Amino acid sequence: LDLFSPDTADFIRLLDSYEVADETAAKHSYFENEKPCTLLIDEIEAIWKPIAENDDWSLFENKLHAIRQIRS
Questions:
Q1: Are 37 and 30 in contact (CB under 8 A)?
Q2: In this structure, is the dihedral angle defined by the CA atoms of residues 8, 10, 15 and 20, taken in order, positive or negative?
Q3: Per-residue pLDDT, 3
Q4: What is the spatial distance between Cα 21 and Cα 8, in angstroms, rounded to a whole number?
């Protein structure tokens, strides 16, 4: 990204004029998390491994809990 290009200047102007459409949604507790809740393939495989090997569903339950927090 060329910081001195006209496109970059236009983009920065757009960012400066941005306003949050819904302040209540923007203050949701989800946004206080350090990292976003994702379902990347590597994560799913890491969740599945203890289930397949030891019938350990704890990582799966933790992920469901994280997803449910987003709804509230």
A1: yes
A2: negative
A3: 63
A4: 24
